[in-house]
Design brief:
By secondary structure, the protein is of the alpha/beta class. The chain has eight helices and eight strands; from the N terminus they run βαβαβαβαββαβαβαα. Strand 6, helix 5 and strand 7 form a beta-alpha-beta unit. The structure holds D-xylitol-5-phosphate and zinc ion (ZN).
Length: 222
């Protein structure tokens, strides 16, 4: 089976928000595949980040797909708004969605891709009934809420098990991993079966600069 090229998603959580446009343009010029927007509400996760106006502003300055990760309670209330703001992929957490089937269908009806995210402690069995609705599966490799945390080593096995499930169920959904991705952990995640790597601090806090850090990350998994 031919393996697709690994994608890199820049998480803007660690951006210098006074220079966000500039930093996103630099990442786009370096060939980043997605811009990953971490939306936090201070309830689902113990942190508050950014929301709709940032998605709208980014949509105006880049064609790179906007991969919006909703770490909020009741995400179903905001699906129309994020789609309207320009999200290309809208990912919701299993733990925040008692009516996940309906929520995923609402996202897909708007003509954008639907993603499902799982916290580290949430079992893969929670995907059983909804897998065919997912365009993307986002495994958290840290407990969500903050950038710059360490990759939880035990998550490598979860990635392997999810890859096997996708293969067995003939799913072409992307397997994205998020949290603690560096040039050291990216090869572990990719050999376990990840095909999209979210990276924030490893790119935005790198002394190499954004473009060179993206190239280094890509090189680490080639
Ligand atoms: C964590 C967010 C991540 C985070 C990743 O809750 O979902 O996207 O920004 O940051 P790094 O790459 O620094 O671990
Ligand atoms: Zn994220």
């Amino acid at each position: 089976m031919k393996k697709n090229k690994v994608k890199i998603a820049l998480s803007i959580l660690s951006a210098d928000f006074s220079r966000l446009g500039e930093q996103v343009r630099e990442a786009a010029a370096a060939g980043v595949d997605y811009i990953h927007v971490d939306v936090m509400d201070g309830h689902f996760v113990p942190n508050i980040s950014i929301g709709l106006p940032v998605v709208e502003s980014l949509r105006k300055i880049t064609d790179v797909p906007l991969d919006v990760h909703l770490m909020i309670e009741k995400p179903e209330l905001f699906i129309d708004k994020f789609a309207g703001a320009g999200a290309d992929i809208l990912t919701v957490h299993v733990e925040a969605c008692p009516h996940l089937d309906g929520t995923l269908n609402s996202i897909k009806k708007l003509g954008i891709k639907a993603g499902i995210s799982l916290n580290p402690a949430t079992p893969l069995s929670s995907l059983d009934e909804v897998l065919p609705l997912a365009d993307l599966l986002l495994l958290m490799t840290v407990n969500p809420g903050f950038g710059g945390q360490q990759f939880i080593a035990g998550m490598a096995d979860k990635i392997v098990r999810l890859r096997r499930i996708l293969y067995n169920r003939k799913s072409s959904a992307e397997l994205e991993v998020d949290g603690g991705i560096t040039t050291v952990t990216a090869p572990i995640a990719v050999s376990a079966g990840a095909d999209v790597l979210v990276a924030g601090s490893a790119i935005l806090n790198s002394s190499l600069g954004i473009g060179a850090a993206i190239k280094e990350l890509r090189k680490s998994v080639c």
